[in-house]
Write a sequence for this structure.
């Protein structure tokens, strides 16, 4: 979310960024890794004033389903996403993104084809 270009590509960037930061905080607390995460938080805070501001708000969030819209050269792709626990690994979650409409799926296939990816 804080990598170069992410803000421009992600529609409703601030909403999603706040959610990611709040989820990261909640997960580090849940697994008892706040001390281990401190170096990463320091690095992210130095490189991103937005991250630093959001982290200082101390918000917590749980993973849930949602919708994410991504801008690309040909328009906007809309994905629905859901999170699932990984059986036998309480510390892992799998997030599945699915194109919201048949048109989004067709646009995604075309983008993959253009980039040389196997469709």
């Amino acid at each position: 979310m804080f990598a170069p270009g992410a803000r421009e590509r992600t529609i409703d960037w601030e909403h999603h960024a706040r959610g990611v930061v709040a989820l990261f905080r909640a997960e580090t607390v849940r697994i008892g890794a706040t001390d281990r995460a401190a170096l990463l938080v320091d690095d992210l805070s130095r490189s991103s004033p937005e991250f630093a501001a959001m982290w200082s708000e101390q918000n917590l969030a749980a993973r849930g389903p949602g919708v994410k819209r991504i801008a690309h050269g040909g328009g906007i792709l809309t994905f629905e996403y859901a999170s699932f626990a990984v059986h036998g690994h309480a510390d892992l979650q799998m997030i599945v993104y699915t194109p919201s409409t048949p048109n989004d799926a067709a646009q995604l296939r075309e983008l993959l084809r253009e980039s040389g990816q196997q469709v």
Remarks:
- Residues 63-119 form one domain.
- The first strand starts at residue 66 and ends at 72.
- DSSP finds five helices and three strands in the chain.
- Residues 13-30 form the longest helix (18 residues).
